[in-house]
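Chapter review: from sequence to fold.
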Amino acid sequence: MFTSISRKIAGTVVFAASVVMLILLVRAHRVSAQANPADPIADDAMKMLQNGRHIFRFDTFGDEDFWGGQLNLHQAIAGAKSGGSGAGLSPLAALRLGLKVDAEAVPASLAAQVKAGQVDLNDPASTLALLKLNAVVGVTGVFNSDGSLKSVGIQCSLCHSTVDNSFASGIGKRLDGWANRDLNVGAIVALAPNLRPMAELLQVDQDTVRKVLMSWGPGKFDAELFLDGKAFNPLTGNSAATLIPPAFGLAGVNLHTWTGWGNVSHWNAFVANIEMHGKGRFADSRLNAPRFPIAARAGFADIEIDPDKDQITSKLPALQFYQLALLAPKAPAGSFDAEAAARGDKLFAGKAKCNNCHAEPLWTEPGWNMHVPRDVCIDSFQADRAPDRAYRTSPLGGLFTHQKGGFYHDGRFATLLDVVNHYDTCMSLGLSANEKSDLIQYLLSL
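The token string follows.
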């Protein structure tokens, strides 16, 4: 399915700089969303940006035929009283699972009713009402003419967006590109009445599939499960799922996943086809390797489709454009010790040697940003589940936004101090307690 991808995917620095400049111009109100015949490049860029945002937030790529049509997840959401099955999924239950609500999609009259306690947030019918408003971030409901829920699909924003909680916890304005570390993907999928398609792919029973899904926990997802079938790390006994990474701050960065599968466009095609179960074309011959028996058996190395039925490929350029335009957010003033951070800045580029890999201002290597496990003194389990058996140097911009769930690909380090202590030992840095504290404040300021 995958065509061979060169080990050295060139970092698109010029393109990234253009995107960043465009965003700055937009923020300064110097670029209009209206047609600009005098500058067709800027005009086309703005159209692509807007199109990419819409795709990122709302496009299912046709995956509702899988989540609803095959797994019947919509029935578990609707509940028996609304034509589905079981108790249904209430708004409060959905929020507990980490799903978010876009407050800007909720009419002012309904928002006022919610604040007044006039909406039953324990009633699954209220969830259906939110789906009809397209207010559940990353989830689209498909409804019959009688108003009953026919199917449900998911979008990129399900995992890679959250909200600012400005209305209530889990309800607010969208924050695109932020990792949703509250989202319990496995528990949500486990609600589906029919997991037979997943069970047949993995060649196990449905109870085993549910056990694996429930082992992921909040903020984690196992993208390789349906490639190699390895549900748990044999070295630790922990789930093989990895943390949902942020999708911002990637302009100018070469490889964009924990273990360097490819760049943004490759990963979007991979996820849209294999993980989201959309309808498109995908190719990566690396998936025919013996290390990926499930992927090879399922034909994931070369997914073919009638071009007229492909709902993914044509959307990849605009989707990539938008994602590369998502700048890493700046840490709010007062959220870190500025004086300590200034001292930590000097340590970062000096004694702590962080800048050797996390080069400012990309916060990763400009070029080939991968390391074999021994370079960072950790086990190779997750690296061995990827083609190059290596780990990516993760960009650090906006680090303050994704502290929940821990650090590294699998959250093995609960705090930044744990991370610093690891490198202090691994690299024999000899950092004092005060130096470690200053370095952490600098990291929180990025």
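Two observations follow directly from the output. The first strand starts at residue 101 and ends at 102. The first helix runs from residue 13 to 27.
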